[in-house]
């Protein structure tokens, strides 16, 4: 049995491009004691992969040159040499950009038990994106009914969930996204009260018009010029959830920008970073809550599905071009999702 896998062959300084990866084939080795063999069905593409590859400025050890690209995936166990796991179990975890993954059970994030919903959701609205949205918003943003929640990458996988959850919690929601099509999607599909195209002129004035009492919670997925326009418009007592830096093209050299301290001081505001992997003990509870909202039709999602492992090398660069509408995924096996 051959395993096709995506190898990191060189380390980019900015966003990884297709030429930083190569696809190679290698036989699936006999399974070691204590391991499980997962047939990957859907692979995830995360903006965070840029950080996982980088050798500075990130929260995890960089992917080694010559190794399989680190990635979340969902699939079914086809062989188990561990007593807690059986062939047929559907699982999501750190299985990498490859067709088959022989892993220790520590690589498994969770058993996927939502049999009534597409398995691919375990990578998006019922996975890293939804859990980030729910816990980042509620634990760090702590929104109160009636407050204004402003979200960047508002039409994306995390952002679209943040906007809808904030609405469920009784907030007024304003989204910032790139281009008229994503702005329309924010308003029509994800129920934002207002949406702003950051590529159009006058971002600061547009934020002011959409948030006349200021921004109570800013869910920041981009940093950069968007955040520069938001900080002067925070409301007194605002909370900033620093979740992503999608607009920063490269960390070498480290980018500089306007000072934000005066805005935080005068507005008695708080800005705090959030990393979803610090919240492993809350993951199951968060997924259960998100799944209930999906089943009830209160939480919509959009998937951006590419086909075949050949799509992997350019998939990350595409995210940073803004090509994706919704959660970017690579589908490997027929039938699912
Ligand atoms: N902290 C955590 O634990 C955690 C977990 C998951 C995700 N995240 C972060 O959450 C953010 C969104 O992730 P996602 O998976 O939901 O991706 P996504 O929003 O579905 O896709 C990424 C989006 O980033 C936007 N973008 C790219 N370059 C940009 C730029 N220069 N300026 C402004 N926007 C730009 C594009 O949207 P437009 O077309 O609208 O520009 C693109 O569609 C990312 O920053 C990611 O790293 C953080």
Question: How would you characterize this protein structure?
Answer:
With 337 residues, this protein is an alpha/beta fold. It folds into 2 domains: 2-124 and 301-331, Medium-chain alcohol dehydrogenases, catalytic domain (Quinone Oxidoreductase, Chain A, domain 1, Alpha-Beta Complex); 128-277, 3-Layer(aba) Sandwich (Rossmann fold). Helix content is 25%, strand content 26%. The protein has helices at residues 49-53, 128-141, 157-168, 180-188, 203-210, 224-230, 261-266, 283-295, 312-321, and strands spanning 2-8, 21-27, 36-44, 72-80, 90-94, 100-103, 108-111, 148-152, 172-177, 194-197, 215-220, 234-242, 270-273, 303-307, 327-331. The strands form 3 sheets. Strands 3, 4, 5, 6, 7, 14 and 15 form a 7-stranded mixed β-sheet that branches. It has a 6-stranded parallel β-sheet with strand order 10-9-8-11-12-13, sandwiched between helices. Strands 1-2 form a two-stranded antiparallel sheet. α3 links the parallel β8 (148-152) and β9 (172-177). α2 packs across α3. The longest helix has 14 residues, at 128-141. The radius of gyration is 20 Å and the shape is globular. The two termini are 23 Å apart. NADP nicotinamide-adenine-dinucleotide phosphate binds at residues 46-48, 128-129, 132, 153, 155-159, 177-178, 182, 221-222, 243-244, 246-247, 274-276, 319-320, 322, 324.
